[in-house]
Design brief:
Strand 1 and strand 2 form a beta hairpin. The strands form two sheets. Strands 3-9-8-7-6-5-4 form a seven-stranded antiparallel β-sheet. With 186 residues, the chain is mostly beta strands. The chain has a single domain (1-40, 61-169, 177-186), classed as Chalcone isomerase, CATH 3.50.70. 6% of the residues lie in helices and 26% in strands.
C-alpha cells in the first residue's frame, strides 16, 4: 500500500468481550496475513505498524459516537487517499488498498485508546468480511490483531454498503448531514 501499511485499515468491534482478537499462527517468515485468524490471543509480542504516523496524519473526516465495545466512545475517522469518496453519497465502490481508520477516544480532546483499521483487499480475499483486512492497533502504534478477524466482519456485515459504516454527506466538501450508523465509522 502507498503509505507503508502492510495490513488492514479501520475497524469496529475487534476487541469485543465475546472473542479475544488473534492472528493466524506464525509461519517461518512471520505472520501469515492470508491465513484465517484464530480466536486466541497471539503468543508473540505485538509489532510496530509500518506507516503509523502517516496514517494518523490523514485528514480527519469527522468524529462520531461509536458502538465499539468498552463503553461510550468517540471515534475520529480518517481515510487514505485511495478511499477519497468516504462519507459522500453516491461515491464509487472502494478499490483494493483503500484504507480507513477509526481512532477511539474516551471523549473529544482525549488521547486515543485504540485504533481500528481496515484495508480493502482484492476480490475473494475474505468474502464474509467484504474483502476487508482488519487490524487492531494500540495507541503506541503496535499491531495487536490483524487479518480476517471474524468478530469485526460480523459487525461490519450490518453496514448498509460495502461493510463500512460512514457518516454521509451529499456535498463534495464532506459536510455531514446524517450521523454514522450504529457501529460509528469504519
Amino acid at each position: 500500500m502507498a503509505y507503508g501499511l502492510s495490513l488492514a485499515l479501520a475497524l469496529a468491534a475487534c476487541t469485543g468481550a465475546t472473542q479475544t482478537p488473534g492472528r493466524a499462527e506464525p509461519d517461518g517468515e512471520g505472520w501469515d496475513q492470508d491465513a484465517a485468524p484464530t480466536a486466541k490471543a497471539p503468543t508473540t509480542p505485538s509489532r510496530p505498524l509500518p506507516g503509523f504516523d502517516e496514517l494518523l496524519a490523514w485528514p480527519e473526516r469527522g468524529r462520531v459516537p461509536t458502538g465499539h465495545p468498552g463503553g461510550a466512545r468517540r471515534a475520529a475517522l480518517r481515510a487514505s487517499p485511495e478511499a477519497e469518496g468516504y462519507g459522500r453519497r453516491g461515491r464509487a465502490p472502494f478499490a483494493p488498498d483503500a484504507a480507513l481508520v477509526a481512532s477511539l477516544h474516551s471523549s473529544d480532546g482525549a488521547p486515543a485508546i485504540a485504533h481500528y483499521l481496515m484495508r480493502k483487499r482484492e476480490p475473494g480475499y475474505f468474502p464474509e468480511g467484504g474483502d476487508w483486512e482488519y487490524a487492531v492497533v494500540s495507541p503506541m502504534g503496535r499491531v495487536e490483531a490483524e487479518g480476517r478477524l471474524a468478530l469485526c466482519a460480523r459487525c461490519h456485515a450490518e453496514a448498509t454498503r460495502e461493510h463500512v459504516f460512514e457518516p454521509l454527506s451529499s456535498s463534495s466538501s464532506g459536510a455531514t448531514s446524517r450521523g454514522a450508523a450504529p457501529g460509528g465509522g469504519p
